[in-house]
Design goal:
With 266 residues, this protein is an alpha/beta fold. The chain has helices at 14-17, 21-24, 28-45, 64-71, 83-91, 136-150, 166-178, 234-246; strands spanning 54-58, 75-80, 97-100, 114-120, 151-161, 182-188, 197-203. The radius of gyration is 19 Å and the shape is globular. It catalyses: a guanosine in 18S rRNA + S-adenosyl-L-methionine = an N(7)-methylguanosine in 18S rRNA + S-adenosyl-L-homocysteine.
């Protein structure tokens, strides 16, 4: 029997593991963590202030990161290997376009399509060979090189990941640099083994950046969502429904029950 603390990428291929109940039916805590990581990734993208951008979400899963992108006013395309997870995203009526795809096969987009890319907890899957034909270095290079081409000049890609060891981190950064990216590593909460999260930020500019792992001190708490509706509250739901109406989508009528929290069933 496998240990309960075993890394998920070691237990089965991503299209199998990602559809477990743990990943599909997230608790409010898991949703909050995913939203915070997405917020941090967008912060590192350094997008133009107040300007809607066209972004790529690699390993989008059920669309939790995409929800944050939509709330920020951005348009996005999500790619994931799991059709089951994308079905969950469709059921949740996310606002981005969804594509089934293995990131190790490359990104099938025209050059300069996107203003930026984020990826939450997906990149480390490419470091494992789930089939005999899989070569992690080749799959990483194929991913990074095609992603590099699909990004507009000067844009950034931010990957939140959990590297297993320094060798794995070196493998990832080496293939990213080989594909043309420059950038470095940022570690949030480096003194906490539980909250420690790594992010690899890369740029598609021609500026020379030393191939070094850069560590930050403990980062401040995520900025308050001032002026924004509480997520999943009535105002947030009404705003989301209004956006969909403007897009010409079919939306249920608003009632006194809209946004009302249901009692848990035991």
């Amino acid at each position: 029997m496998a240990s309960s603390c075993r890394r998920p990428e070691h237990s089965a291929p991503p299209d199998v593991v990602s559809y477990s109940p743990f990943y599909c039916f997230c608790s409010s805590r898991m949703i909050e963590i995913q939203t915070q990581m997405s917020e941090r990734a967008v912060e590192l993208l350094n997008l133009p202030e107040g300007q809607p951008c066209f972004l790529l979400d690699v390993g989008c899963g059920s669309g939790l990161s995409g929800d944050y992108l939509s709330e920020e006013g951005h348009h996005w395309v999500g790619v994931d290997i799991s059709t089951a997870m994308l079905d969950v995203a469709l059921d949740r009526e996310v606002e981005g376009d969804l594509i089934v795809g293995d990131m190790g096969h490359g990104m099938p987009f025209r050059p300069g399509t996107f203003d930026g890319c984020i990826s939450i907890s997906a990149l480390q899957w490419l470091c494992n060979a789930d089939k005999r034909t899989h070569s992690p270095p080749k799959r990483l290079y194929t991913f990074f090189s095609t992603l590099y081409s699909s990004l507009s000049r000067g844009s950034r890609a931010v990957f939140q990941l959990y590297p297993e060891n320094s060798e794995q981190l070196e493998l990832i950064t080496t293939q990213a640099m080989k594909a043309g990216f420059s950038g470095g590593m940022v570690v949030d909460y480096p003194n906490s083994s539980k909250a420690k999260k790594s992010g690899l930020g890369s740029e598609t500019s021609d500026k020379t950046v030393p191939n070094q792992v850069q560590y930050s001190g403990q980062r401040c708490r995520f900025k308050n969502m001032k002026g924004k509706s509480a997520k999943k509250g009535r105002d947030w739901i009404l705003e989301k429904k209004e956006r969909r109406r403007r897009q010409g989508r079919e939306v249920r009528d608003d009632t006194k029950y809209t946004g009302r929290q249901r009692r848990p069933h035991f």
